[in-house]
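During the practical work, I selected for study one protein's amino acid sequence and its backbone structure tokens, as given directly below:
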Amino acid sequence: MAGVWGCATLCFVGRTRRLAAGTALAAAAYASPSVARLLPPRWRATPRLSGLGDPHHLALTFDDGPDPSSTPEVMAALDRLGWSATFFCLGTMAAANPGLAAEVVAAGHEVGVHGWSHDGAVRRPPWALTDDARRCRDTIAEATGVVASWYRPPYGELSLGSLAAARANDLRLILWSAWGRDWREEATPASVVADIARGVVEGGTVLLHDSDCTSAAASWRVTVAALPLLADLASEHGLTVGPLRDHGLDGHPGRAHADAS
């Protein structure tokens, strides 16, 4: 009898391990697009996802607004520089501040979908991500009269569900090729621009933040102070600065794409 129970136990353990292994493999497969977040391999493997476009242009993007305490200050700084940018809005922020979202568009800036809430994609099912992106897109459209076409998931975290959500909502996924890490408490204007310079700048897409709702308190002040320094960096490289819509991502790949692939 002991032998029978022993055999049964071994079979049960074997099935449990196989089930666990299968579950782990399924989870890894679902999260596999998240490897696209890795830099610099992402630049080479997925240049368009990384926002590599016109080699003479730098696409400037901001995440997490619109925030009444900071987005107007960011827009004022951009206006002083004569720049337009792409603002990836959280649905919760756009719903709370629809008038400000409308002001962003009225000022000549572009808006994109950053999701309804700032939750990662890997642990969320496809239907939830699809609904999240749709709710955010529709809220932005109601506030601004503009239907967004870009989608940057929170944290740049991707899953198979992210791809499905983008497709279902006719959105184009975009991440970045350089970031200022301006969300950190220890960030300074100089460190923000130094971090940007470590990424791909010529033909690249820069990630900054126009709200501290998911960042260190008042970190947006550092971002605003960094923008004139970013203007110096762009000038050194002979780059014009503007939103994603002017970045040549819908045209021919150009030199930046060729160099990165």
